[in-house]
Design goal:
With about 375 residues, the protein is an alpha/beta fold. The protein folds into 2 domains: about 170 residues, Rossmann fold; about 180 residues, Rossmann fold, CATH 3.40.50. The protein has 11 helices and 19 strands. Strands 13-12-11-14-17-19-18 form a 7-stranded mixed beta sheet, with helices on both faces. Helix 3 links the parallel strand 3 and strand 4. The longest helix is centred in the first third of the chain and has 14 residues. It starts with a strand and ends with a strand. The structure holds S-adenosylmethionine. The site of S-adenosylmethionine has 20 residues, from helix 8 and strand 12. InterPro entries: DNA_methylase_N6_adenine_CS, NAD(P)-bd_dom_sf, RlmG_N, RM_Methyltransferase, RsmC/RlmG, SAM-dependent_MTases_sf, Small_mtfrase_dom.
Length: about 375
Amino acid sequence: MTWSADNQHYVITELLVGTAYAATVTDSPAPTDPSAPSADPVARLLLADGHRLAPEAQTVTLLDLPDDADAPAASLWPRVRSHRDRLDTGPSTDTLAEAVQGAELVLLHLPTSLAALQEQVATIAAHAAPQAVLVAAGRVKHMTPSQNTVLARAFTEVQPQRGVGKCRALHAAGLRSDAPSPEPRSAIEPTTGLTLVAHGPVFAGPRLDRGTSLLLKALSAQADRALTGLDALDLGCGNGILTAVLARSGAHVTGLDVSRAAVASTRATLAANDLPGIVVLTDGLTEQDAASADLIVTNPPFHVGAAKDSTPTLGMLRDARRVLRPEGELWCVFNSHLPYLRTTREVFSQVTVVDRDREFTVLRARG
Ligand SMILES: C[S@@+](CC[C@H](N)C(=O)[O-])C[C@H]1O[C@@H](n2cnc3c(N)ncnc32)[C@H](O)[C@@H]1O
């Protein structure tokens, strides 16, 4: 397969067939090659298989592909829409349903979470064109037979393909009329009595995470100020458990998250419990005004995508000082081995460890 830039369009030659195709998809172009269709081999496999199966498709949806796949896809098909869960990974439709509406071909970068896959597949079944074809692919080491089972609930034909390099595709066609509906999961959380709603890949699903549970206990036992009327932020709000608890305590709360699924989940959790609150799709605290909050609570992210990287969270902890009012407080729970205590001590003058067990540390910072 050769890709060349021609009047801003990518042209595929020696196309996408048989062993020639298999061999060439395996050969990753150097990431610096300006004519490479995508630096990601899974995206290249998806584009190649999608074009082989549905070259005439009019409406094509890319789900969670890297943004460097958009341009080559737009050169292959007339109407291409992309959906990505994280705000910071490229342009996206607001919702999954909007992205797959009427799609004849859907290219899906398989998520690690089966719950996320279930919601994606059910949304495709509810909104794509009846003749829709799905090509789903991932790294072989992240794939499991359960993913085929999930696809088979929505499609009558599911065909796993041979591996191409370290990647593999699943082809699915024949949408079932009895496919599951794309409802988010929900459950009553017993310690708080709150109904939690979880879309797709949201952290902890509709459950209370153990670290978050420690943070909640510490907050309710040791907060020496009533929460009523405080301007509070829940940084990385996920399924909305902390946002909902703060709202129920009378705080003016805003949930912040970089994930569209998390924002939708927190909004749904607030609605399910008839609680007020604002929820914003945003990256960290970057859009928050200086000295605008009395309280920030967070069970912060400990990884970016599949890679564990604490750098973004260290930046958010530093930014918390800017956003808090002079008497404001940061409450944070984290895995005890992470370097967050040291960073928080560099930024705040008073840092107290309010709870700690073998796994988690809860801290309170001010000043
Ligand atoms: C460990 S989870 C906590 C979720 C929820 N607060 C709870 O306690 O169950 C961390 C959350 O941070 C979000 N997140 C990751 N990176 C972020 C960023 N740059 N800005 C805002 N939120 C982010 C994730 O999407 C995830 O929902």
